[in-house]
Amino acid sequence: MKVNPKDVSTIVILSKNKQSAKTIQVRTKHIVNLKFYALSLVGVVALLVGAIVLLRSNIKQQEVERQSERQLLLNQIVHLKGQIPAVLQAQSEKTRLKATFRQLKKN
Q: How far apart are CA 22 and CA 10, in angstroms?
C-alpha cells in the first residue's frame, strides 16, 4: 500500500549540543490521534488503580468480619464452658488423668 506524501509528517529531534538532528516520519493520523492514545492509556491505568483499591477495601472488610466472627465464637465457647457442671468437668479430668497414667505405665 502506497502512502501519500501528504499523509506523512516529519518530526525533527534536535540534541542539546546541536551536533546532530534526527528526523522521523510518522503518519499524520497517529499525530492527530495522539491525545486519544494518551487518554486511553490514562483510562486503563485509572481503571486498574480503581480495581486495586476496590479489592483492597474488600479484603479489609472480610478481615474485620472474620475478627468479629472469631470474637463471637470465643464468647460462645466461654459461655458454653460456664454451663458445664463442675461434676462433669471433674469426671472428665479424672478420666483424662487415668488415661495418661495408663500410657505412662505402658512405656
A: 10
